[in-house]
TrEMBL record:
Transmembrane segments: none annotated. This is dTDP-glucose 4,6-dehydratase. The keyword Ligase does not apply. It holds the Pfam family GDP_Man_Dehyd.
Length: 350
């Protein structure tokens, strides 16, 4: 039996990981450490019986040391981060505090507890992003684990710094670490400030779908369950000191994503009885096209043009292969938001 500390486990990706681990490793104990900012939600953890929530800050090194010692933690899975690029542009300080200082605090605590005396078996897994690699041209090869870092936003710069700290604690102190750099996640429990849940909920309420610039910025889309499987593979098969790119195999322009959202919303209203009564402000409730809500807005400052993931290393060394096609995954995601209004409704009203 393993004892995991999952930081940021009441957030989007961390919460999905807790549910995934609870289902696939029910004998393990999971301690969730989350400060419950706007993106953390207690209700995300409902239905995960082996998970215990501790409300606290990863920057509280003494708290983390106590948890590691008292709960016999042997694995840290570090999700906790400020992650919204727009927020990093208007307020970068929170990203420095959480993503850099918070990661350093966790590493200090892990070193103090795990490397004391003769040391104990352990793993510190750090979740990062493809944004640390910067922007690709249309014909550039996809990001690999050897692509030089070139972050272009305060968010990606703070994540790049945290990646370097994790690497340094391995090479300097011998901490057993792995890092995964993922592409754009989507799926259940995602806070509605990110593109897919924002546009899904805007479509249901008849609100504009604001598209940055020309809508042709390209991202690789990764269903969060596939990401959880990739993290599991890193923990079970990953080699200490190594990094692994986890992608979804769905490199798409934002406009294609938006058009797919519109198509799926229109389909749902045509096929699901009572949906028009629940969301009368949606164009689809009147038989009109959701695409009529599309509008173009000024591009975001420093908006990277293209990201793409080369996941060859994860496939060959970890046996990782994404299982969700984008259209299937998006349809499942839309259905989840339709079924879980009790989860997202308070976020819109808060």
């Amino acid at each position: 039996m393993a004892n995991l500390l999952v930081t940021g486990g009441a957030g989007f990706i961390g919460g999905n990981f807790v549910h995934y681990w609870n289902t696939h490793h029910p004998e393990d104990r999971v301690i969730v450490l989350d400060v419950l900012t706007y993106a953390g939600n207690r209700s995300t953890l409902e239905g995960a019986p082996n998970a215990e929530l501790v409300v606290g800050d990863i920057r509280d090194t003494a708290l983390v040391e106590g948890l590691l010692s008292e709960r016999d933690i042997d694995t840290i899975v570090h999700f906790a981060a400020e992650s919204h690029v727009d927020r990093s542009i208007t307020g970068p300080d929170a990203f420095i505090d959480t993503n850099i200082l918070g990661t350093n605090s966790l590493l200090k605590a892990a070193r103090a507890v795990w490397l004391a005396g003769d040391g104990i078996g352990h793993r510190f897994h750090h979740i990062s992003t493809d944004e640390v690699f910067g922007s690709l041209g249309p014909n550039d090869p996809a990001f690999s684990e050897t692509t030089p870092y070139a972050p272009n936003s305060p968010y990606s710069a703070s994540k790049a710094a945290s990646d370097h700290l994790v690497r340094a604690y391995h090479h300097t102190f011998g901490l057993e670490v792995t890092t995964s750099n993922c592409s754009n996640n989507y799926g259940p429990f995602q806070y509605p400030e990110k593109l897919i849940p924002l546009f899904l909920l805007n479509a249901l309420h008849g609100r504009e779908l604001p598209i940055y610039g020309d809508g042709m910025n390209v991202r690789d889309w990764l269903h969060v369950e596939d990401h959880c499987r990739g993290i599991e593979a890193c923990l079970t098969n990953g080699q200490p000191g190594e990094t692994y790119n986890i992608g979804g195999g769905a490199e798409l322009p934002n406009m294609t994503v938006v058009d797919t959202i519109c198509t799926e919303v229109d389909r749902a209203f045509a096929e699901i009885d009572g949906l028009a009564d629940r969301y009368p402000d949606a164009p689809a409730a009147r038989g009109e096209a959701t695409a009529n809500l599309k509008t173009f807005v000024a591009d975001r400052a420093g908006h990277d043009r293209r990201y793409a993931i080369d996941e060859t290393k994860a496939r060959s060394e970890l046996d990782y292969v994404p299982r969700h096609g984008f259209e299937q995954g998006l349809r499942q995601t839309l259905q989840w938001y339709l079924d879980k209004e009790h989860w997202w409704r308070p976020l819109l009203e808060g």
